[in-house]
Design brief:
Number of helices of chain A: 28
Radius of gyration of chain B: 19 Å
Strand content of chain B: 15-25%
Number of helices of chain B: 2
Shape of chain B: extended
Largest interface: A-B, 84 and 45 residues
Largest sheet of chain B: 5 strands, mixed
Strand order of the largest sheet of chain A: 5-4-27-26-25-6-7
Strand content of chain A: 15-25%
Number of strands of chain A: 35
Largest sheet of chain A: 7 strands, mixed
Structural class of chain B: alpha+beta
Strand order of the largest sheet of chain B: 2-1-7-4-5
Helix content of chain A: 25-40%
Structural class of chain A: alpha/beta
Radius of gyration of chain A: 26 Å
Helix content of chain B: 10-25%
Number of strands of chain B: 7
Oligomer: heterodimer
Chain lengths: ~850, ~130
């Protein structure tokens, strides 16, 4: 019996055991215990030993068993026999052997790598977080920069992650639940069964509310977050920046409760700004200047004590009339009066004033607290935002406006405040590995210590004539891009002289047809690939376009050495433990299923790029001797995982140790969690770098007839409307938006029988929600089938459900439902496909970070006639 | 009690450089001919016929010197992949000297009687989620 067969046999052995592993029903990757009886998984629970989930598991996690044992899962490689591709085309699937499948894929990849490796595009789902490194390394070894994450980043992350990175050195932000007394959520669901550190945050948020933390939820709909809020603030869709800017105005200009010492020491608020909107720099050192009140002179920021830096006043430095950035911000905010904001966002002006005062008062500026013997600033308020807030054309400013509230009162990465998820780690004590900490650039501004990818949010790269299909090397504030599937992709590629076109797509688990935008546009993009291979659990709407479909292992059959790293992604913030869990097979592979990790390694050998792949793993995992991958030696994925673990945690903590214990953890220190006072970095409340960035981007675009509006690149945030806010068409009186259903993950889990049953029981999961009074006013009735039509004529059909918990202009659709694939019979025909309403082109993305605009002005008409 | 934000923590050395981790390659020196074997991977290896490349330098040399020499051999398009405008090493470019990641391109490389080993690869930049 060979090693693989022996391992497979041991996983199917008789007996009763609980196995520690990691969930993959969403990207939260919570730690689980799987109960296996006689080779069959009978129950999945949260692992109480782990900080990732803290023993909790959501409805999705406990239902994972149904995804794994779904009889509709793919069991053998399939090849299409119909060369025509399209939504209505039957691929004519034929079962083939792995040998045949890999032979064909190898031939295609070898040829395209020889011609131009950039013609390969890799798409992967964000749901399996641990797939990041295997696919990034494969892409790096192959030589393509074109790696994307389906709709994940495009919908949820280009604004949120960008600004969390620039302002908090982390992927996302969350209240410090243990100490926070007042949290205001702008379209976020941190602590309500979704998102990063999902299950951990559920418990932390519930405990905080029980302790008395006031949770104010700003959202068009009072659903998962609003239902648990102390106060729900209904807001017009996509106008969060207006509310946040008006609150900031109140705090800065009327209430005057500002943490000036924080602004002096940890922001660029004191940096002098000239009439050209740029820093006034020291002629010799080129460092930004501040006004030294002790010396009554302008000096480089690094030579002045923070307490002596002027935040306000008009000065003259080297003959240049200038003001501190904070003074610029304060003056800029004056225009955002509560009355102005009320007209934009519909929140009454008196409520805006009250919310601002509550927030500033609760911040307790100047107070301190002792945590584990360490004296620290105490600012128990947090303003956080996520998908709902930033999923618009105004994505960057929406999120920045909210985060400014934190920085005005010094509530950033100190006790009780808005925390980045684990922005600084002093490493595993026994080896010193995994250490990262934010550091300053030459301007003193913060560079994040670690990132999910290699495209750091700050400092941004220099814009250049793009060579990547997603144009991120031109629009350097972006991460995910719409242009791999947009309706104007070819026009843009021609304008920018992109010297190649995509020819081959490797897709891992993402359902592009549903996850990105309207399916007609995405279908056209998929049709143009000469060859597509897709790793899937089921035949999805997207795998219908594949030439070869490969039956993937489920998460209960897979191995990952780092199911939850980097810590900035989904390890809970706040005090507690650092925790590194693994994912391990709980049961063996069935039929001809194979795990994508092993398939990628075999493909690398077949293509002849194993040395490149080993080098990519060494670089990506930072493997060092004696745990480096050598030359072109063929390692199994388990061997790579073993080296990764030993490299980080020492030779005694290899894969066998982790298989037994599931995870390793060690306590966090206050200086790590509340790192801001200890690390000499500043964050920009004035985004000076936007000025030159626009000039450089515009210089490239203007010549080619692409207009990049300058108002999206100003140093200070504004409210900029989406198309929906400008729509004047009669009868188009609802703002359609989608929200994350806490029982579903993207488009994936509708096929899960238990989750489908739960969604069927929920009045809103598969229906179209509008406010009761608004519905009656329009002559509609609860339960009526209607068409929802966008101003561009795109339509979806659904059943209306009335609720009082919705803004009168809002129209809410849950999740990413509405499947039509026969390969997902549980999901087929369930729910409403919101993304069908979305346009997918340059005009509907943020010209700053390329985030797709996720709202649409719609009209409702009866579908029952 | 109202306390200045930056008065809470003073002279804290918690985040001082960690002694167990060295970012710099081990250096030793020679005065004369220094040989370095460069292995380029992934897209950097496109069009490069030999792996490893052997480069010789007279006197002390740095990663920057290696990059400049590679640029001379393979052109500006190759250089554009490795460095941003201004000559700063691209964030996506990983340089490993004698098995250790090196971020500072001005780090001198010394061979101490044996040749230095340099690996370079571009990691993929795009992410999301």
């Amino acid at each position: 019996m060979n090693g693989v067969a022996a391992a497979k046999d041991s996983l199917n052995e008789r007996g009763d055991t609980w196995i520690p592993s990691s969930c993959a029903l969403c990207y939260g990757s919570c730690s689980i215990l799987a109960h296996r009886v006689d080779g069959v998984v009978v129950k999945i629970e949260g692992n109480p030993e782990s900080a990732v989930g803290k023993g909790r598991l959501c409805g999705k996690g406990v239902s994972g068993i149904m995804t794994h044992y779904d009889p509709n899962r793919l069991t053998k490689p399939l090849r299409r026999t119909n060369p025509r591709k399209g939504v209505m085309e039957d691929p004519g699937w034929k079962e083939i052997s792995w040998h045949e499948a890999l032979d064909e894929i190898t031939d295609v990849l070898r040829k395209v790598r020889q011609e131009d490796p950039r013609k390969l595009v890799i798409q992967r789902t964000t749901t399996v977080t641990a797939s990041r490194i295997p696919f990034q390394t494969f892409g790096a070894a192959f030589g393509t920069p074109n790696i994307a994450v389906s709709g994940g980043g495009l919908h949820c992350g280009n604004g949120a992650h960008l600004i969390s990175g620039i302002m908090h050195a982390s992927w996302s932000v969350v209240p410090d639940f243990t100490y926070c007394n007042y949290a205001i959520y702008f379209g976020a669901s941190k602590g309500h069964g979704a998102g990063h550190a999902s299950c951990s945050n559920m418990r932390l948020a519930a405990d905080a509310r029980a302790r008395g933390m006031k949770m104010v939820v700003v959202d068009p709909m009072a659903n998962f977050a609003g239902a648990k809020a102390t106060e729900w603030v209904p807001i017009r869709v996509g106008t969060d920046a207006a509310l946040a800017l008006a609150m900031a105005n109140m705090i800065a200009n009327e209430i005057g409760m500002l943490d000036r010492p924080y602004l002096q020491a940890r922001t660029n608020g004191p940096y002098l700004i000239g009439p050209d909107k740029r820093y006034v720099r020291d002629p010799d050192s080129k460092k930004p200047m501040v006004w030294d009140t002790a010396a009554n002179a302008a000096r480089p920021f690094s030579e002045v004590a923070a307490a002596d830096m002027a935040l306000e006043g008009k000065f003259c430095a080297y003959g240049i009339e200038c003001e501190p950035a904070f003074a610029k911000l304060k003056a800029h905010l004056l225009r955002f009066t509560p009355e102005w904001a009320e007209a934009v966002c519909t929140v009454p002006a008196k409520n805006i004033r009250r919310l601002a005062k509550e927030f500033a008062t609760e911040a307790r500026i100047g107070s301190t607290i002792i945590v584990d013997g360490v004296s620290l600033p105490y600012r128990p308020v947090a303003a956080i935002a996520f998908r709902g807030n930033q999923g618009h054309k105004n994505s960057t400013y929406n999120f920045l406006a909210v985060d400014l509230l934190n920085h005005l009162v010094g509530a950033a990465d100190v006790v009780g405040s808005c925390l980045g998820f684990n922005s600084a780690c002093n490493g595993f004590p026994e080896t010193g590995r995994l250490r990262y900490v934010p550091k300053p650039d030459q301007d003193g501004l913060m560079i994040t210590g670690i990132w999910m990818g290699y495209h750091y949010p700050y400092p941004a790269s220099e814009p250049r004539i793009p060579k990547n299909l997603g144009l991120q090397d031109l629009f350097v504030m972006s991460m995910a891009s719409p242009f791999l599937h947009s309706s104007d992709q070819e026009v843009l590629w021609q304008k920018f002289d992109v010297p190649y076109r995509p020819e081959v797509l490797i897709n891992f688990g993402s359902n592009l047809m549903m996850a990105v935008g309207n399916s007609k546009v995405v279908a056209k993009a998929l049709e143009r690939y000469k060859f597509m291979v897709s790793f899937d659990l089921f035949l999805t709407e997207s795998s219908q376009f594949a030439d070869i479909v490969l039956p993937d292992a489920s998460y209960l059959q897979a191995m990952d050495s780092s199911s939850n790293f980097p810590f900035i992604f989904s390890l809970p913030a706040g005090m507690g433990d650092w925790c590194w869990p693994i994912r391990q097979p709980v049961v063996g592979l069935d039929h001809a299923q194979r795990c994508y990790t092993d398939v990628l390694l075999e493909l690398a050998d077949r293509i002849g790029m194993r040395a490149d792949l080993n080098a990519a793993y060494n670089a990506s995992m930072n493997l060092q001797a004696p745990y480096r991958l050598e030359g072109d030696r063929s390692y199994t994925y388990s061997e790579i995982c073993d080296l990764d673990l030993k490299g980080n945690f020492g030779p005694e903590h290899g894969l066998d140790w982790f298989k037994k214990y599931g995870l390793i953890k060690w306590p966090k220190k206050p200086q790590e969690v509340y790192w801001r006072p200890f690390v000499d970095v500043r964050v920009p409340i004035y985004w000076e770098f936007m000025v030159s960035m626009w000039e450089k981007i515009n210089a490239i675009c203007e010549l080619r007839g692409v207009k990049v509006p300058q108002e999206y690149y100003e140093p200070l945030p504004d409210f900029l409307p989406c198309h929906s806010h400008l729509c004047q068409k009669p009868d188009f009186d609802f703002y359609a938006f989608y929200y994350r259903d806490s029982v579903h993950t993207n488009s994936f889990t509708m096929e899960n029988a238990w989750l489908n049953e739960a969604a069927d029981l929920d009045p809103f999961s598969y229906n179209v929600a509008i406010q009761t009074a608004a519905g009656i006013r329009k002559g509609l009735r609860d339960g009526q089938y209607v068409w929802v039509e966008s101003e561009t004529g795109r339509k979806v059909k659904g059943k209306l459900r009335f609720t009082q918990a919705l803004h009168p202009e809002g129209l809410g659709i849950a999740a990413c439902a509405g499947h039509w694939s026969d390969g997902m019979p549980v999901a087929k025909g369930k729910g409403v496909f919101f993304n069908e309403l979305l346009e997918l082109d340059f005009d509907h993305v943020s010209p700053n970070n390329l985030n797709l605009d996720l709202c649409a002005k719609v009209r409702i008409t009866s579908a029952e006639d | 009690m109202w306390v200045r934000w930056d008065a809470i923590v003073q002279d804290n050395s918690f985040w001082s450089e960690h002694p167990r981790q060295s970012q710099k390659a081990r250096i030793v020196d020679p005065n004369n001919l220094n040989r370095v074997q460069v292995r380029l991977f992934g897209s950097l290896n496109n069009g490069v016929t030999a792996r490893p490349l052997t480069l010789d330098f007279v006197g002390p040399f740095t990663i920057k010197d290696v990059i400049v020499e590679l640029g001379r051999l393979y052109g500006t398009e190759f250089l554009d992949c490795m460095v941003d405008v201004g000559g700063v090493l691209s964030r996506t470019c990983r340089v490993i000297v004698n098995g250790q990641l090196v971020e500072d391109t001005t780090t001198p490389i010394v061979t101490n009687g044996f040749q230095a080993e340099v690996e370079m690869i571009l990691l993929s930049a795009i992410e999301g989620g």
